[in-house]
Amino acid sequence: MADKSVVKGQRKLHVKKGDLVRVVTGKSKGLEGKIISVQPDDELVIVEGVNRVKKHTKVQQAQRGGTTGGIVTQEAPIHVSNVMLLVEVDKDGKKQKVTTRVGYNRVEVQKRRPDGSTYTGFRSVRIARRTGEEI
């Protein structure tokens, strides 16, 4: 992998904030949750209820609305390669959540210029590879 200081621009990840994912490897394997935050430069995501760790907090000064010390449980980041997107599929009349890879399609759309005129442009949309439907 290239040095982060050399690579310019933001990395593109297959998942984004708000997506429902399942952990496919590691100590939290099989757990599902919603993505709380994404760190594209480090290729990390924080998933709700997954990879929970205990953090020891120090007592802060009470003058400035400080906090009390103690042990807090919170989610730690997990590498983006360890999660897969979940989509709902109709199987025998039942809705099931299944993992899928993410693909991209270019869709033709009507765009509007500031002066009010319209033109045809293209936009990239995410699709679920398993179902072929737009996410």
Topology:
Layout (H helix, E strand, L loop, with lengths): L19 E4 L8 E8 L4 E4 L4 E6 L12 E6 L2 E2 L3 E9 L2 E7 L1 E11 L5 E11 L7
Report on the architecture of this protein.
The protein is an all-beta fold. It contains no helices and 10 strands. Strands 6-3-2-1-7-8 form a 6-stranded antiparallel sheet, with no helix packed on it. A two-stranded antiparallel sheet has the order 4-5. It has a two-stranded antiparallel ribbon with strand order 9-10. A hairpin with a 2-residue loop joins strand 7 and strand 8 (94-100). One of its GO terms (cellular component) is ribosome. Pfam families: KOW, ribosomal_L24. Part of the 50S ribosomal subunit.
Helix/strand order: EEEEEEEEEE
How does the helix and strand content classify structurally? mainly beta
Task: List the uncertain runs.
Answer: none
Q: What's the Cα radius of gyration?
A: 20 Å
Biggest sheet record = 6 strands, antiparallel
Helix content: under 10%
Proportion of strand residues: over 45%
**How many helical stretches?**
0
Q: What form results from the Cα inertia axes?
A: extended
Rounded average pLDDT: 88
End-to-end Cα distance, whole Å, is 29 Å
Got a strand count?
Answer: 10
Spatial order of strands in the largest sheet: 6-3-2-1-7-8
Keywords: Ribonucleoprotein, Ribosomal protein, RNA-binding, rRNA-binding
Function: One of two assembly initiator proteins, it binds directly to the 5'-end of the 23S rRNA, where it nucleates assembly of the 50S subunit.
Family: Belongs to the universal ribosomal protein uL24 family.
Subunit structure: Part of the 50S ribosomal subunit.
